[in-house]
Design goal:
Elements: H1 2-15, H2 19-50, H3 59-83, H4 86-93, H5 101-127, E1 129-131, E2 134-136
Antiparallel strand pairs: 1-2
Helix pairs in contact: 1-2, 1-4, 2-3, 2-5
């Protein structure tokens, strides 16, 4: 993923006035989706095994926790990639490698959708449900 982040940062540097904040937001968004991709199936399995689907979430608490996790991820990405100049190092490292812009933008747009669909599909397969008129009984 660092290769795609570096190439996207090069594109942002050519077109935008604030590439650091834009690439920080995108990287944070991707890491959030990856965390969600890991969290959703694990939480459903734990809910099914240990709480027998009786565990209910407090909506306000869940929103506060999600926003704080988003803030922590954004701050961490900012420190690691921008403050420590890792994105500039990655840009220099991959400067000699060419990558087609259409393919780069396709990957940048499709990867978040892929992560969201993967998390949902894994959860439905584990918990049970229907995907595209195919019924899954669930593994748990």
């Amino acid at each position: 993923m660092n290769f795609f982040f570096a190439k996207l940062f090069e594109e942002y540097r050519r077109t935008e006035s604030s590439p650091e904040s834009t690439i920080t937001a995108y990287i944070s968004f991707i890491y959030c989706l990856l965390l969600f991709n890991i969290y959703l199936p694990i939480s459903e399995v734990l809910n099914k095994l240990y709480f027998n689907n009786q565990f209910h979430y407090n909506k306000i608490g869940l929103i506060i926790i999600c926003l704080s996790i988003l803030g922590i991820i954004y701050f961490t990405v900012y420190v690691v990639y921008i403050k420590r100049k890792r994105i500039f190092y990655l840009t220099e490292k991959y400067k000699g490698k060419k990558f087609h812009k259409v393919l780069l933008y396709t990957i940048i747009v499709v990867s978040p959708v892929f992560f969201l669909l993967t998390a949902g599909c894994i959860t439905v397969i584990l918990k049970g449900g229907t995907i595209l008129n195919y019924h899954f009984n669930g593994l748990f």
